[in-house]
Amino acid sequence: MKKNGFGASQPAVVALGGGHGLAASLTALRQITDDLTAIVTVADDGGSSGRLRKEIGGLPPGDLRMALAALCRNDAKGHAWRQLLQRRFETEGPLNGHAVGNLMIEAAWQDAGYVYGLEMLGQMIGIKGRVLPMSTVPLDIEAQVLDINPISPDETMTIRGQHDVATTKGKVNSVRLVPENPPACAQSLEAIREADFIILGPGSWFTSVLPHLLVPELAEAISSAKAKRILTLNITSDDETAGFSAARHIEVIAEHAPMLRLDYVLADESFAADETHLLSFVTSLGAELIVADLRMRDGSARHAPLRLASAYSELIASEEF
């Protein structure tokens, strides 16, 4: 917790996830507090990140880049940096498709290492908060998937790689990390221990949200933290969870992290509508279900940043920290 410019206390908030889901949460949270830490999954193996991972080795920068962009300030300078970080090269040469921000991160890492490289870059572009990897080793996601073979739909097959898991046409049953017991980033563990609020989700359930709970040190730190724990559900099912109800999303969390207890589950009213089991599943994790209108006005399956910020603000204001 720290003071703002007027001397008022600001909550220390840690948001965990990856990709567009984490970016949506960070965009909302940076309107509430300056004491904000993004802890980002490091299993991406597709696109620019996958190419850099193969060529250079080390952590994939893509989800970390998106978190940095989401934390850029809401002014002209911040907008310019956000655009630059996300801009991709369009060329006939080997740079084609690479995000500028990914190359900036790789350069910072070569100068200062993972944690301090991200800190240096964040200070340079003036982000609101900080960005940390969940682990200091690159990870792979391995999934057990059903319904891939039309002749034997009940046959379980193993798919490895974040991109392939995220785009599979089968039904993901469970996931694990490779290696199974990776080291957590020490600064990430410290941030969780000092947090007033921990926010998990939204995002791709199996490849962005669950991985944090599969790093043993992170899972233990989240479970034992003094912070209030908030799980933010998606607006609807995505490719990874096609056909999953909101209640099934909660069930998947419980199956992969049986020791986890939550304080709040935040759900969009359209996804929570007509859910007969959602409340009981949420209650079984020790949480209170909060239903709100969080969807973009255009009807797309995205969180509206101002609505999500309002929901987070009300939850935070209801607690003493």
Q: Could you give a short description of this structure?
A:
Its main location: cytoplasm. The protein has 321 residues and is an alpha/beta fold. The chain has 14 helices and twelve strands.
- The name of the CATH architecture of the largest domain is 3-Layer(aba) Sandwich
Based on DSSP secondary structure assignment, what is the total number of beta strands?
12
Proportion of β residues?
15-25%
Sheet with the most strands? 7 strands, parallel
Rounded to the nearest angstrom, the radius of gyration is: 19 Å
Report mean pLDDT, rounded to a whole number.
92
CATH class bucket of the largest domain: Alpha Beta
Low-confidence stretches: none
In terms of structural class, how would the helical and strand content be classed?
alpha/beta
Topology (SSEs and partners):
Elements: E1 2-3, E2 9-10, E3 13-17, H1 19-29, E4 36-40, H2 47-55, H3 62-70, H4 76-86, H5 100-112, H6 114-125, E5 130-133, E6 140-146, E7 157-160, H7 162-166, E8 171-178, H8 186-194, E9 197-200, H9 205-209, H10 216-224, E10 228-232, H11 246-256, E11 264-268, H12 269-272, H13 278-284, E12 288-292, H14 305-317
Helix pairs in contact: 1-3, 1-14, 3-4, 5-6, 8-10, 11-13
Protein name: Putative gluconeogenesis factor
GO cellular component, one term: cytoplasm
Keywords: Cytoplasm
